[in-house]
Amino acid sequence: MDTTHYQQTVELLLSHLGIDLLQIQTTQDEQGAISIALDTPDAPLIIGRHGSGLHALELISALIIRCKQSDHDVQPPMLHIDVGGYKDNYEERLLELTNKKAAIVITELSRETFHPLNSYHRRIVHLHIAEHFPELDTDSVGEGALKRLILKHKQATEDVT
After folding, report:
1. Neighbouring residues of 31: CB distance < 8 A, sequence distance ≥ 6
2. Of 124, 109, 110, 113, which Cα lies nearest the Cα of 146?
């Protein structure tokens, strides 16, 4: 299934929801993941509270595409949908928060806890810390939508044990 089918599916779904699109752009990266960028005056409706509507749109679109697929044994490409740069802005703010929390942990040899994050965003933080702050450890605690990430200094962890 090429990117055209992905774009058409998202356009049709949004039209059924009464969402007016100003622009839609579809790209595919080297790993095969498909990204759809939307521009609409209805962005807040699509994004929802803390991105929940955007996540739901991604999930429903991916399920529809999977059902349309002729070979159900083949995993379809990953689908990413963004509206007005919401996801890019959120990830940028998340990395800024991560850097601030890392600075506190390094200075005070303390722990910092993040607000609940989905698995994708926890992974972004885990990878960022591993790459830029080798003196720090991350740990995920909690269940489901309430899962949080804890940032701690390796030295403080070693002293406790």
Report:
1. 78
2. 113
Over the stretch 17-30, which tens digit does the pLDDT of each residue have?
999 999 999 999 98
Residue 75 DSSP SS3: coil
User: Token pair 């406790």 is at which residue?
Assistant: 160
Sheet containing strand 23-28, strands side by side: 23-28, 34-39, 79-83
Left if phi > 0, otherwise alpha if psi is -120 to 50, otherwise beta: which for 113?
beta
Query: Tens of pLDDT along 48-91?
Result: 988 889 989 999 999 998 888 777 677 888 899 999 999 989 99
Tell me the two tokens of residue 16. Answer: 């059924």
* Residue 109 Rama label (left phi>0; alpha psi -120 to 50; beta): left
The confidence band for 2, taking pLDDT boundaries of 50, 70 and 90, is: confident
Q: Residue 135 in contact with residue 153, Cβ under 8 Å?
A: yes
Centre a 10 Å sphere on the Cβ of residue 88 and count the other Cβ atoms it contains: 11
Task: Give the integer Cα–Cα distance in Å for 49 and 64.
Answer: 23
- Residue pair 58/81 in contact (Cβ under 8 Å)? The answer is yes
> Which alpha helices (H) appear in the chain, and where do they start and end?
3-16, 43-47, 52-68, 86-108, 119-132, 154-160
